[in-house]
């Protein structure tokens, strides 16, 4: 058993310990750590075997994970989450489980309207979780960074490319210089080379985390630029070294297809908050006579 003390008082304290130890964990225990970070409200109810199946590990790995952080077994670790989450957002979690059960129990062909309604309901649940989990301090920090940036670069690959393209489109409605790192022709390295101190790189990536996106974040840091990461976990390789991080921990999903609703909503909220901030700056400049039409 690890020497870590079991006097954990909160979920946040436990997750902080997990984050600090994450790099030194074996691969199987890293998978368990990521699962727990992404499923905080349900960990108290999940069976060890279910977690193991979701992580692709043996159930003993889940027990070893708990012991690594000083617990005698996984049920003791669950007690920390049970104390924090019992009575909190219970109806939301039950609703989420109800949607999944409804899908699993469907017999025969499902109509297009049923598919649409179930997907919309799942997306709505994801939005509720986004609102509940929004970090006010990190969001304000993100807006501050973008408002002060000389250039804004945006990177997102594969599933995240649509979101990256959208936020570039939205940000181009401000007076900021905005650049999409598209990697066209395989030229990620060349496109990120011009990033410098005073710029901000927005990186959007979810598990299993695009290697191209990770490279661009490292390059931005090397050149002294700030990084705003939109991802799914504090244990994400991008989030652990970001200047600011915003999390979409669980998108709504139905029929094994993950929605982009929550991620797009977060990006729209970020743009609107930035535009509002810039407009306030303009009005303040007009009042002091420093704004030139």
Layout of helices and strands:
Layout: H1 11-21, H2 27-38, H3 40-43, H4 48-55, H5 59-68, H6 74-85, H7 90-104, H8 112-133, H9 136-148, E1 151-156, H10 161-171, E2 177-180, H11 188-192, E3 200-204, H12 211-222, E4 226-231, E5 244-247, E6 253-254, E7 257-258, H13 261-287
Parallel strand pairs: 1-2, 1-3, 3-4, 4-5
Antiparallel strand pairs: 6-7
Helix pairs in contact: 2-4, 2-5, 4-5, 7-8, 8-13, 9-13, 10-13
Short description:
With 293 residues, this protein is an alpha/beta fold.
User: Strands of the biggest beta sheet: in what spatial order?
Assistant: 2-1-3-4-5
Regions with little confidence, pLDDT below 50 for 5+ residues: 1-5, 87-95
H/I helix tally: 13
Quickly give the structural class: alpha/beta
GO biological process, one term: glycolytic process
GO cellular component, one term: membrane
Organism: Candidatus Burkholderia verschuerenii
Membrane topology: Single-pass membrane protein
Which key features would you list for this structure?
Arc Repressor Mutant, subunit A; 5-stranded parallel sheet; alpha/beta; disordered N terminus; globular; 293 residues; two-stranded antiparallel ribbon; Homeodomain-like_sf
């Amino acid at each position: 058993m690890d020497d870590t003390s079991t006097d954990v008082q909160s979920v946040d304290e436990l997750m902080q310990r997990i984050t600090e130890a994450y790099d030194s964990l074996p691969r199987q225990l890293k998978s368990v750590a990521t699962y727990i970070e992404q499923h905080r409200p349900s960990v108290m109810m999940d069976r060890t075997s279910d977690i193991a199946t979701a992580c692709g590990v043996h159930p003993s790995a889940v027990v070893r994970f708990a012991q690594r952080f000083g617990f005698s077994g996984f049920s003791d670790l669950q007690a920390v989450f049970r104390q924090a989450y019992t009575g909190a957002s219970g109806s939301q979690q039950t609703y989420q489980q109800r949607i999944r059960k409804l899908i699993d129990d469907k017999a025969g062909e499902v109509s297009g309207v049923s598919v649409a309604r179930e997907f919309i309901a799942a997306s709505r649940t994801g939005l509720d979780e986004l609102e509940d989990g929004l970090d006010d301090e990190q969001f304000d920090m993100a807006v501050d960074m973008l408002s002060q940036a000389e250039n804004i670069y945006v990177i997102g690959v594969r599933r995240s490319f649509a979101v990256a393209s959208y936020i570039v489109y939205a940000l181009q409605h401000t007076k900021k210089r905005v650049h999409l790192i598209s990697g066209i022709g395989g030229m990620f390295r060349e496109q990120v080379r011009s990033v410098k101190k005073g710029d901000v790189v927005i990186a959007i990536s979810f598990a299993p985390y695009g290697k191209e996106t990770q490279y661009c974040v490292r390059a931005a840091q090397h050149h002294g630029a700030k990084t705003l990461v939109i991802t799914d976990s504090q244990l994400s390789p991008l989030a652990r070294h970001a200047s600011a991080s915003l999390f979409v921990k669980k998108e709504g999903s139905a029929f094994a297809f993950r929605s982009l609703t929550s991620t797009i909503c977060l990006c729209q909220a970020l743009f609107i908050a930035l535009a509002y901030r810039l407009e306030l700056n303009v009005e303040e400049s007009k009042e002091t006579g420093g704004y030139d039409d």
